[in-house]
Fold this protein.
Amino acid sequence: MTMSPYAPQPYVKLKHPEWTKDATIYQINTRQFTEEGTFRAAEAHLRRLKTLGVDILWLMPIHEIGIINRKGTLGSPYSVRDYYSVNPEFGSLDDVKHFVAAAHAQGMHVILDWVANHTAWDNPLVTTHPDWYARDWKGDFRPTPWWDWPDIIDLDYTKPEVRQYMTEALRYWVSEVGVDGYRCDVAGFVPTDFWNNARKELDAIKPVFMLAEWESRDLHAEAFDMTYAWSWFDAVKAAAHGHGLGGLFVYYSWNEKAYPQDCFRMTMVSNHDKNAWDGTEFEQFGDAVEAAIVLSVVGEGLPLIYNGQEAGNTRRLAFFEKDPIDWQPHPMGELYRKLFAIKKENRALWNGAWGARMIHVPNSTPEAVFSFVRETAHNKVFAAINFAPSQQDPTFTPGLGDGEYRDAMRGDHLVLGGDKPLTIEPWGYRIFVSP
């Protein structure tokens, strides 16, 4: 039987690892994660992270850092001196292997931060293969244009040898060290066809998880499981600062219509870039920080925690110096633990096509309350989030949100529907799950 050339073809051709279906992700800045700043010291946190509900551990770049044009005392981990090396500041290759094995023993997976776009000035490739590098108008090595990145120089992906070298290096850490994939720095600065091929070669070793630091639909087709939801961050920040909910409607419209459902988008209120350069989540979202976190977990997307958030860290961690996190118990950690448990217990909140699309539930306070349902054949979740500094008492358009529920955070049972208003405190939220 011949298939019609007009029949729709699947856009997403890759297969997500089964272990990502309800996954969450946690970013480790090894330098600041512990007082020692080592992989061995970080292992002591693994059981705590498992209890928190973390599934994927993202290690920021672990390689030796360049010395030429280094920024600060210790340099940027994104200035890679050798792709096969381990930064002795953090430990040894055996320490990396031990960390990966210990994470696997806890049922978690580990991805490495990979910097394919550029290298340090003193990477050996500069001497052995100078023709592998991009050049400026004068013919000199070139840092990435328009950015303040003088400590690195760009590779030239028109050269097949560059692609082969980088693919072999990616394969090494999966096959020899056991990592489970990569977070790829400025992924959009590297040709998509390179990533497409690299994904195939990595999946031939074992199923991997790939995260692109980029926001592009086409990266999902064959290369990446997940891309950054930068525009989600901007929309929620705008809502938190009193600029209305319009940006959220734009984001979720694009997310539903322009991206296939089987794409993962990374939703977050902080990461290393935001924390170091723009401010902590408390600076970014103010009194709306909990509301933003709730939406990052119960809305469509795979949620990220940057290390220290669960301790209520209020500092911008230094990027080029040692500046360890002060680990203290904090209510933010319990909030994340509860939200991650809700995500895992309710299939409607799972990732990609495993979960459900968000459907807007109109309400009587549209300038303040963002409300939606997510429903599968297995269960239903209804959420209402107040992005206003005053109490709201919305009623909801009959139909979509009606039903019997359990309040996921408070535990009480109730019936929603009709014209009975729902009270939501300033910057508050309500999450209801089908009993």
